[in-house]
Amino acid sequence: MCKDCGCSLPRHSAIQQGHDHHTGHSHEHSHKHQELHTNPQLNDKKTLSVIHKILDKNDVEAAHNRAHFEAHHITAFNLMSSPGSGKTTLLEHLKEYTKLNYAVIEGDLETSRDADRLIAKGITAHQIQTGSACHLDAFMVHGALHHLPLEGLDICFVENVGNLVCPASYDVGTHKNIVLLSVPEGDDKIEKYPVMFRRADLVLITKCDLLPYFDFSVDEAKAQLKKLNPDTQILEVSIKNGDSMHAVAAWLNENLRRNTVGEPQ
Amino acid sequence: MHEYSIVSALIEQCEQHARANQATKITRVAIKLGVMSGVEPTLLQTAFETFKLDGICREAELSMTLQPLVIKCADCQQESVLDERSIVCPACNSYHTRVLEGEDMLLMQLEMEQAEDI
Ligand SMILES: Nc1nc2c(ncn2[C@@H]2O[C@H](COP(=O)(O)OP(=O)(O)OP(=O)(O)O)[C@@H](O)[C@H]2O)c(=O)[nH]1
Ligand SMILES: [Mg+2]
Ligand SMILES: [Zn+2]
Ligand SMILES: [Zn+2]
Ligand SMILES: [Zn+2]
Ligand SMILES: [Zn+2]
Predict the structure, then answer these.
(1) Which of A78, A85, A87, A89 has most ligand 1 atoms within 8 Å of CB, for mutation?
(2) Beta-carbon separation of B105 and A48 below 8 A
(3) For B7-57, what is each residue's pLDDT tens digit?
(4) What is the second-level CATH architecture of the domain B3-69+102-114?
(5) Residues 6+ positions from B77 with CB-CB distance below 8 Å
(6) What is the pLDDT of residue A40?
(7) Residue of A3, A160, A135, A115 whose CA lies nearest to A58
(8) CB of B98 within 8 Å of any CB in chain A?
(9) Residues A181, A126: Cα–Cα separation, whole Å
(10) CB B109 to CB A49 under 8 A?
(11) Which parts of the sequence bind Zn(2+) (chain B) (predicted)?
(12) Which of A109, A156, A239, A252 has the fewest Cβ atoms nearer than 10 Å?
């Protein structure tokens, strides 16, 4: 049980977690570690050998968040990118291209500006004010879950703090990671931030209407990504190009849990 | 600087182990950091030196092992240790590989002093 808010979903320790209800990279990781999770042993009087994931508490909370989403048949996507790559803009415009019902958990440093922008478009959003934090963790997202009406949602997006480093280390309890890279940032960012791009299930090259003005090679970006993460898809997107937005909507639809793991609707 | 949050999770784990073993002091904390774990070792070291001061790790030394990326190729079965941040098999250039090590952040070992005569 959630002590703070009384929600009725149990938290499983990392060892008890089932293997069946998870997808996404971060999950494969935690499963691997469970095998390593040996019983601590005092070798001699002083040396204790443990093999323990440092962020395992966060991972237990992330699994709990996923249980919240799954109890409502929601698929959750973690949106990550540098500041200003177009996360909020994408979410503002997506509504015009999909019938799927979605809400947004917003991570922002100081203001509720992004949530206000979404709410102004009629999209349900809750802002987590992360203060000085450079990433969201599973506990922050859990706090926000209780401020969102989950009933009837198909998708919950988590818009992470704009940062290509820190958010990559934290499973926040979403099912898939979407990483945005905007054309003005340059095609070398995949190579410079390999951990983030390795965790991506989808990479969106955003602001593609600006391609004529920048030396950004989409082929180079694809080649770099393939070296790190060969199974990941890349979509070229511009909010000014309806077809590209429809392609994002189609990817989301194909990647709903009910379409990938056969969850009942 | 998520290294600070990572260190506070690490110190919390150390404190739990210390309690479970009736330790009075932790003298060494050994961790293994994957090169693709997303943590900067020097920042982590600084964060540890700052945070350890108020607790059981006060006098602990942090020893870090950097774990390079290790992959296994599904096509040629070769296991390789990579210098590059890529998961391509250096033996046969296949993309069909699995990462075995190099993406984790693990607490490996603790050295502690226990109260006498327990
Ligand atoms: N030309 C062009 N501009 C875009 C596009 N998408 C977003 N922008 C602009 O990029 C700027 C930043 O967009 P945001 O949506 O606020 O970016 P964000 O990733 O949410 O930023 P943070 O939340 O601060 O990290 C805005 O001025 C958008 O209008 C696009 O497809 N084309
Ligand atoms: Mg935003
Ligand atoms: Zn809960
Ligand atoms: Zn709760
Ligand atoms: Zn950070
Ligand atoms: Zn090979």
Answers:
(1) A89
(2) no
(3) 999 999 999 999 998 898 999 999 999 999 999 999 999 999 999 998 899
(4) 2-Layer Sandwich (3.30)
(5) none
(6) 54
(7) A135
(8) no
(9) 24
(10) yes
(11) 73, 76, 89, 92
(12) A109
Asked whether the beta carbons of A168 and A73 are under 8 A apart, the reply is no
- Supply the pLDDT for residue A18: 34
Instruction: Please give the single-letter amino acid code of residue A102.
Output: Y
Atom of ligand 1 nearest to the CA of A108: 23
Identify the H or E element spanning B70: strand B69-73
List the single residue in A33, A134, A196 with the smallest CB-CB distance to B104: A33
A69-95 pLDDT, tens digit each: 999 999 999 999 999 999 999 999 999
Q: CB under 6 Å to ligand 1: residues? A: A 81, 83-89, 114, 162, 206-207, 209-210, 238-240
- Interchain proximity A57–B9, CB inside 8 Å: yes
Report ipTM for this prediction. 0.91
Residue B31 touches partner A, C-beta closer than 8 Å:
yes
In chain A, CATH 3.40.50.300 covers 56-260
Nearest CA to ligand 1 atom 6: A86
Q: What is the pLDDT of residues B73-110, one digit of tens each?
A: 999 999 999 988 999 999 999 999 999 999 999 999 99
C-alpha A13/C-alpha A30 separation (Å) is 12
Looking at beta carbons, which residues of chain B come within 8 Å of A225?
Answer: none
- Enumerate the β-bridge partners of residue A179: A80, A203
Q: Please check whether residue B1 is in contact with residue A166, taking contact to mean a CB–CB distance below 8 angstroms.
A: yes
pTM of the model: 0.89
- CB atoms under 10 Å from CB of A243, counted, come to 9
Residues at the binding site of B are: 2, 73, 76, 89, 92
In whole angstroms, give the CA distance from residue A79 to residue A73: 19
Q: Structurally, what CATH architecture does the domain formed by A56-260 represent?
A: 3-Layer(aba) Sandwich (3.40)
Binding site residue list of B for Ni(2+):
2
Q: What was the pLDDT predicted at A24?
A: 37
C-alpha A89 to ligand 1 mean position (Å)? 5
Atom of ligand 1 nearest to the CA of A241: 31
Burial of A104-137, coded b for 16+ CB within 10 Å and e otherwise, reads bbbbbeeeeebbebbbeeebbbbbbebeebbbbb
